[in-house]
Design a protein that fits this description.
This protein is α/β, with parallel strands linked by helices and about 325 residues long. It folds into two domains: about 5-115 and about 295-305, NAD(P)-binding Rossmann-like Domain (Rossmann fold); about 115-290, Dihydrodipicolinate Reductase, domain 2 (2-Layer Sandwich). The protein is built from ten helices and 13 strands. The protein has helices spanning about 15-20, 40-50, 60-70, 100-105, 115-130, 150-160, 185-190, 225-235, 250-255, 290-305; strands at about 5-10, 30, 55, 75-80, 90, 110, 140-145, 170-175, 200-205, 210-215, 245, 270-275, 280-290. The strands form two sheets. It has a seven-stranded mixed β-sheet with strand order 8-9-7-10-13-12-11. A six-stranded parallel β-sheet has the order 2-1-3-4-6-5, with helices on both faces. Strand 3, helix 3 (about 60-70) and strand 4 (about 75-80) form a beta-alpha-beta unit. Helix 1 (about 15-20) packs across helix 10 (about 290-305) and helix 5 runs parallel beside helix 7 (about 185-190). It is globular, with a radius of gyration of 20 Å. It starts with a strand and ends in a 9-residue tail after the last helix. About 45% of the residues are buried.
Length: about 325
């Protein structure tokens, strides 16, 4: 049986990439709204209630409004916005981040697609909190840099539209200087932390790709864990995973640079534990495509699980 999928907001960056990943497949059929009726609530409601799966690629308020229009109890919803990522009644769509999450995703009708920065942070931190290496109350610091596509249409125009008044040629900028980035609540909740982490994001002058890093002063942590213990905990957490891979200690030692664009176009994420054992410091880094595992790839992975299909179909 071919499943029907309606992408509400398919004209946006994430929606376009999800559509591109799905339109060549024979096991799903995409439903689209007539562009002239895009703002017609009745037309949207019919599609929202008539699809097997709805993927929302909308601003937060619009995503909440779309969910309110769905009355059909069997429709499965994957929300790519921030609106429901910490909502108790929604299942977090990160299959790899803890045992049993895949099964929860398969059974759910309401799925929240993770944020891109949050995906990297949670992947690094959640297993270490579960293993007792990082206490839940520990004050963690996280820095990240993303390609400008992570900022949506407005930021894309800043970097690509030379006719726009907002056009910039700046190679690197920090942002969210009020320390209120929208990914922080899910970073805290789903990593198992009781204390809000410090998060400093930045954007580079390149389209897509992301590095998320968490520094650890090992001697300051209870038990003074070794770099090897940190690496072993992460390796055990993602053993056998298809899309999340932990680099070996040897590979990490041999790397002198890390390119944020290296996994572009994929749904993969690679985790690194950098550091010299004698320094008693570790630099945990997640490498991913902010539009892949950080957005559209993750949505397609969740769609596959929700429909009982091969998890890697189209990826």
């Amino acid at each position: 049986m071919v499943a029907t999928v309606f992408i509400d907001g398919e004209a946006g960056t994430t929606g376009l990439q999800i559509r591109a990943r799905l339109e060549r497949r024979a096991d799903v059929r995409l439903l689209s709204i007539d562009p002239e009726r895009r703002k017609d609530p009745d037309a949207r409601a019919r599609l929202l209630n008539g699809a097997d799966v709805v993927i929302l690629c909308l601003p937060d308020d619009a995503a909440r409004e779309a969910v309110a229009l769905i009355e059909n109890p069997v429709v499965k919803v994957i929300d790519a916005s921030t609106a429901h990522r910490t909502a108790a009644q929604w299942t977090y769509g990160f299959p790899e981040f803890r045992p049993g999450q895949r099964e929860a995703i398969r059974a759910a009708t309401r799925l929240s697609n993770p944020g891109c920065y949050a995906t990297g942070f949670i992947a690094l931190v959640a297993p270490l909190v579960r293993a007792g290496i990082i206490p839940a109350e520990w004050p963690l610091v996280c820095h990240g840099v993303s390609g400008y596509t992570g900022g949506g249409k407005a930021m894309i125009a800043e970097y690509e539209d030379k006719t726009a008044a907002t056009y910039v040629e700046t190679p690197y900028r920090i942002y969210a200087t009020a320390l209120l980035h929208k990914h922080v609540p899910e970073m805290q909740r789903h990593s198992g932390l009781s204390r809000r982490p410090f998060f400093g994001p930045a954007v580079g002058r390149y389209a897509q790709g992301m590095l998320v890093e968490v520094p650890l002063l090992l001697d300051a942590l209870p038990g003074a864990p070794t770099i090897e213990a940190v690496h072993e905990a992460l390796t055990a957490a993602y053993a056998g995973e298809r899309f999340v891979v932990v680099a070996s200690m040897q590979e990490a030692r041999e790397r002198t640079i890390l390119d944020p664009e290296q996994l572009n176009g994929t749904n993969r994420m690679q985790l690194f534990v950098f550091g010299d054992p004698s320094s008693r410091q570790a630099r945990l880094v997640a490498l991913l495509d902010n539009l892949g595992k950080g957005a559209s790839g993750a949505a397609v992975q969740n769609l596959n699980l929700a429909l009982g299909l091969d998890e890697g179909a189209g990826l």
